[in-house]
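Please predict the structure of the following assembly.
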Amino acid sequence: MPNVPAIEFRQVEKIYPGSSAAAVTDLSLEVAEGETVALIGPSGCGKTTLLKMVNRLIEPTAGMIRVFGNDVRSSNPVELRRGIGYVIQQVGLLPHRTVAQNIGTVPELLGWDDRRVWARVDELFDLIQLDPELRDRYPSDLSGGQRQRVGVARALAADPPIMLMDEPFGAVDPIVRKALQQQFLEVQKRLGKTTVLVTHDIDEAITLADRVAILNLGGILEQFDPPMAILRDPANAFVMSFLGHDRGLKRLSLLPISSVKLVKGPAVSRSASIEEAREMMERWGVDWIALADGDVLHGWVPGEELDGASDLASLALRRFESWLTSDASLLDALDVVVSSRTSAAAVFDGDRYLGMLSAETIGREIVT
Ligand SMILES: Nc1ncnc2c1ncn2[C@@H]1O[C@H](COP(=O)(O)OP(=O)(O)OP(=O)(O)O)[C@@H](O)[C@H]1O
Ligand SMILES: [Mg+2]
């Protein structure tokens, strides 16, 4: 069956018993197979409720949820959950079970024999890069980041096609969080699982997700688009305020240097005359000149050193301290450019000189 969404919410509503307001209001969205979708919104906007309706820990008041085309109401909840790994908000490891036992929980419940369970646990230690020394420790003796990793490993244990992750990198410091995000991207590249991930952090959503669903209180879907589209065209004031003031910079973080046209910059051949070098500097309005031939960048010299020099070849060349490779983001590039003496960064692909990036070029990307 081609093009059946892995998960489909169709006009879903949830009103908890005894409460007057809806936790989720008329929400429709589809998650394609292999896609990572981030759910983001203020506390209490129904993110956890949405996840739990997928694996039937909570039943909707109205509407329908389908998993690979099947109405979840017609599936046995236990069967359904076999195909859905769930990383619980606040991790929720079982305190009296060791790390290895925690990770093996679902395979054990599925009746795998011990050897197969332990082999799978080993595999996951490897995949999530957990120190094997942690196997027999208890969750209380782990760092926050380690606990988060164990939570993810446990959800992956039975190799479910769908992963629901509720703030999987919530309770850790920013550095550990970055590392866990990076690892998520790598693992995801290998496994390609359909993933719905809840986060409070817009930068995390932008970095990790193919599409981001921005929710408002009452579980109202304000926008559901790829990160780039959200940053470029926020649907309304709510989304705009959610993205914050540095929307332009966030966009830059998603754009690789290779997305802009590079020019060779204020550069002349090493065999050019002093006059030609001066003209080039004037044309660019800079007080330095780069010497380049084809895809070889020799270096640069400050303009004042041209005074009295007989030819360029006699000048001592400076190396470009500010350089980048073409796979870096424009945000990385901006950082290098603003801290460089030349207000420009040389871009390389390996040894090949591709061109020069100036603050101006990058600035154009922010506004367009
Ligand atoms: N079992 C419940 N009974 C009644 N109301 C509930 C129940 N669970 C959640 N709610 C309410 O439903 C709304 C949505 O809750 P939910 O846990 O889905 O929010 P959330 O977006 O996950 O929030 P957070 O970011 O703080 O985790 C909240 O107003 C919450 O108080
Ligand atoms: Mg929640």
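The chain has a mean pLDDT of 90. The longest helix spans residues 174-191.
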